[in-house]
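<amino_acid_chain>
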Amino acid sequence: MDAELLLAHVLGVPRAGLLTLGEVPDDAAVRFEALAGQRADRVPLQHLTGRAPFRHLELAVGPGVFVPRPETEQLVEWALARLAGLAEPVVVDLGSGSGAIALAIAHEHPGARVTAVERDPVAIEWTKANAATRAAAGDTPVEVLSGDMTDPRLLRDLDGTVDLVVSNPPYVPDGATVPREVADHDPPLALWGGPDGLDVVRGLLRTAARLLRPGGGLGIEHADQQGGALPALVRASGGWTDVEDHPDLAGRPRYTTAHRSGG
C-alpha cells in the first residue's frame, strides 16, 4: 500500500488512478525509486508525501512534527459528541502538534472557539501553517498559542470557562521500544512521558482542572498499556466524575474521558 501511495504521489493522481495507468514515465520512475528507498529505510510515508489524512482533513506534516494517527480520530468523535448542542463551545487542545484535533473540531463544529497549544518551537510552525490553510479554506479560525500544557500560568484568562479540554500528550514510557519511524522521526517532546509515561499527564490534569467549567469534559489519549493507570490517575487527582476508558477500533484501550465535578 505504501508503494502505491508513493507512486500516486509522484504521478499526482489518486491511488485508484493507478488501476488505469499504462506506464510510468522515466522521470517519475526515478523519483518513485528514490522515495521507495527512503521508505524502506523507515522514513515515515507521511514525511515523504508531506501529507497526513485526518478525518475530513489533509494536513501538512514533515520533520519536527508528530504524524497524526487514525486512532486519534476516535477521541475527536467523542469530543464532537460532547459538544453537540453547544452553539459556541470553548475548546482547548493541549499539545496540538500538527493541529489535527483542534482543526478537525473547528472544521466539524464551526461554532467552536478552539485554542491549540503547542510547546515545541518546530512543531508549532506546522500547527500555524495548517491552521492558516484551514482558515483560508473557510473553516472557523483556530488560535495557535505557544505554551507548555503543564504551565500553571497557561491560558489564565480562560480559567473556569472552558467546555472541553482534549489532548494527545507525550505518553510513551522512557526507554520503551518503538518503531524506527517513531524513534527516528517523531519529535521527542511529543513522545516521552517519563518512567511510567504519565509525567506530562499529571501536569495536564492540573491545567485541565483549572480551565474547565463545572461539568466540562476532558479527553486524553494514552498508550494501550495505560488503560488502567490513566483512569486511576484521573480519579486519584480528585474533582472528576464519569471517569471512563475507551477502546480503539482494534479493541485496545486508547483514551480516557471525565467531567469536571460540579456541573
Summary: The CA atoms of residues 251 and 258 lie 20 Å apart. The chain has two domains: 1-41, 53-260. The chain is about 35% helix and 20% strand.
